[in-house]
Write a structure and sequence with these properties.
This protein is mainly alpha-helical. The longest helix is centred in the middle third of the chain and has 61 residues. It is built from 6 helices and no strands.
């Protein structure tokens, strides 16, 4: 009854634990193979020794043991190949599972983001931005429009008046007389300085009165 309510727990395979177990088995097989190889070498030495002693039967027995050990070595080699094959398949399956999990996580995240940003909300937001931009443009145009007395001015008349002013200014510049060139400085011989003009003598009070009387008589 409880299992029907909560469901049976799913049995998950721990890939890392399995790979560790296969590695341990592989190491054990390699140790047995090395041990059998030593036994093969030992039987070969014994067979040589019995051959030198002319004990043919004992030498043949040693060679038979060597053959048995070699068959076991071959069998252990096949076991190792199978374990290597299994490890490669597990590592590939592990990589595939991790890739699928990563893709699934990415898809879930993307789905959540799409829920948070609905397309209708995006369209509504863009419409609001466009509306606010248009309103701001109208406000700026309204602020730039002249008001009061300046609103009655004709732009064409103002431009025509400005052209007349520019033409009058150009005509005035053309009618101005040419300025005389400054006189060339007089070259004075070395050692001679030009004589400075004598300062005008101050008139006395009597001379001033005389000049004023002459002016009245002339009138």
């Amino acid at each position: 009854m409880w299992n029907r309510l909560v469901g049976k727990p799913k049995k998950e395979t721990n890939t890392l634990t399995t790979l560790d177990k296969l590695n341990e088995t592989l190491e054990m097989l390699e140790k047995k193979e090395n041990l059998l190889a030593k036994k093969v070498a030992a039987e070969v030495e014994k067979a040589k020794e019995y051959t030198r002693r002319k004990n043919k039967r004992a030498a043949i027995q040693c060679l038979k043991k060597k053959r048995l050990y070699e068959q076991q070595i071959e069998q252990l080699g096949n076991f190792q190949l199978r374990i290597h094959d299994q490890m490669i398949m597990l590592e590939g399956a592990k990589a595939t599972t991790e890739t699928v999990d990563a893709l699934r996580t990415g898809a879930s995240a993307m789905k959540a983001m799409q829920k948070a940003t609905n397309i209708d909300d995006v369209d509504k937001t863009m419409d609001e931005i466009n509306e606010q931009t248009e309103n701001m443009k109208q406000i700026q145009e309204a602020l730039a429009t002249p008001i009061g007395a300046s609103a009655d001015f004709d732009e064409d008349e103002l431009e025509a008046e400005l052209e007349e002013l520019e033409g009058a200014e150009l005509e005035e510049q053309l009618l101005q007389p040419a300025t005389t060139a400054p006189a060339a400085p007089v070259q004075v011989p070395a050692g001679r300085q030009p004589a400075r003009p004598a300062p005008p003598q101050k008139q006395t009070a009597e001379e001033d009165e005389l000049a004023a009387l002459q002016a009245e008589m002339a009138l």
